[in-house]
């Protein structure tokens, strides 16, 4: 069964550094998402992306965050200047075009900011 | 902002017992999805409910969507240790742009 893949599985970075989290969504999916989950807390929506543009973003997704689909397969999340509170699991998800089709999640990237 | 409240947050039961997890909101959702998440992994879809009053069964799991499409429940019959995990409900906004998650119910089933 096709799956969403994310790399790296674990990223350690120093405060103030830029990080890029990478995702390869399921190939025929058209909607792409980033979520994050701080340890022990709920899964929080960051951003949704469709037709090469952001369709929705949350308050968390401020100017230090950006997303890009640089080619036909990758979907990236960039954090420009990481803060300690950015430490979390970051999940990429994709869905097909059918109405109410479910999200398929990757296994996440654990980001640790020191 | 659409909010989903799940209860209980934690549940520890013995093998063979039944349980119900609730997911409530003041908002109407176009659909509601239930996921299960294992440590170190992403959420995995269990079921999607779309129609108000809909009931879906997945082996020992029964999912119900409220008539007004604001709430849902997950009932597990004769729980087994393999059911242990984090159960998440998530509501879909009408535009399909955003899935809002509840806080999750962490279930532990002891043998």
Coarse shape of chain A: globular
**Rg from alpha-carbon coordinates of chain A:** 13 Å
Count of DSSP-assigned helices of chain A: 0
List how many beta strands of chain B DSSP finds.
11
- Calculate Rg of chain B over CA atoms: 13 Å
For the termini of chain A, the CA-CA separation is 37 Å
Q: Give the mean pLDDT of chain B.
A: 92
Category from helices, strands and their pairing of chain B:
mainly beta
Please provide the ordered H/E string of secondary-structure elements of chain A. EEEEEEEEEEE
Q: For the report, how would you describe the main beta sheet of chain B?
A: 6 strands, mixed
Strand content of chain B: over 45%
Estimate the mean pLDDT confidence of chain A.
Answer: 93
Helix content of chain B: under 10%
Tell me the fraction of residues in β-strands of chain A, as a range: over 45%
Name the largest protein-protein interface in this structure.
A-B, 26 and 25 residues
Shape of chain B: globular
N-to-C series of helices and strands of chain B: EEEEEEEEEEE
Largest β-sheet summary of chain A: 7 strands, mixed
Concise account of the structure shown:
The complex is a heterodimer of chains A (114) and B (111). Chain A is mainly beta and 114 residues long.
Would you give an account of this structure?
The complex is a heterodimer of chains A (114) and B (111). Helix content of chain A is 0%, strand content 50%. Chain A has strands spanning 5-7, 10-13, 19-24, 31-37, 43-50, 53-57, 65-68, 75-79, 88-95, 104-105, 109-113. In chain A, strands 2, 4, 5, 6, 9, 10 and 11 form a 7-stranded mixed β-sheet that branches. Chain A is globular and about 40 Å long. Chain B is built from no helices and 11 strands. In chain B, the strands form 2 sheets. In chain B, strands 2, 4, 5, 9, 10 and 11 form a 6-stranded mixed β-sheet that branches. In chain B, strands 1-3-8-7-6 form a 5-stranded antiparallel β-sheet, with no helix packed on it. In chain B, a hairpin with a 2-residue loop joins strand 6 (55-58) and strand 7. Chain B is globular. The interface between A and B is medium-sized, with 26 and 25 residues.
């Amino acid at each position: 069964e096709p799956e969403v893949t994310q790399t790296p599985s674990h990223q350690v970075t120093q405060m103030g550094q830029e990080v890029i989290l990478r995702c390869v969504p399921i190939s025929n999916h058209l909607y792409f998402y980033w979520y994050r989950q701080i340890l022990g807390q709920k899964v929080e929506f960051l951003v949704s992306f469709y037709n090469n543009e952001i369709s929705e973003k949350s308050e968390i997704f401020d100017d230090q965050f950006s997303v890009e689909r640089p080619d036909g397969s990758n979907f990236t999340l960039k954090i420009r200047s990481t803060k300690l509170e950015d430490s979390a699991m970051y999940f990429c998800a994709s869905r097909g075009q059918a109405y109410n089709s479910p999200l398929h999640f990757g296994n996440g990237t654990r980001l640790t900011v020191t | 902002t659409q909010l989903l409240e799940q209860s209980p947050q934690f549940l520890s039961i013995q093998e063979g017992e039944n349980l119900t997890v609730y997911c409530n909101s003041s908002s109407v959702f176009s659909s509601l999805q239930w996921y299960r998440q294992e440590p170190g992994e992403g959420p995995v879809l269990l079921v999607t409910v779309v129609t108000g009053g809909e009931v879906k069964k997945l082996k020992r799991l029964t999912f119900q969507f409220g008539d007004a499409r604001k709430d849902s429940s997950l009932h597990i019959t004769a729980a087994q240790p393999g059911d242990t995990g984090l159960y998440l409900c998530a509501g879909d906004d009408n535009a399909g742009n955003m899935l809002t998650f509840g806080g999750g119910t962490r279930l532990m089933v002891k043998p």
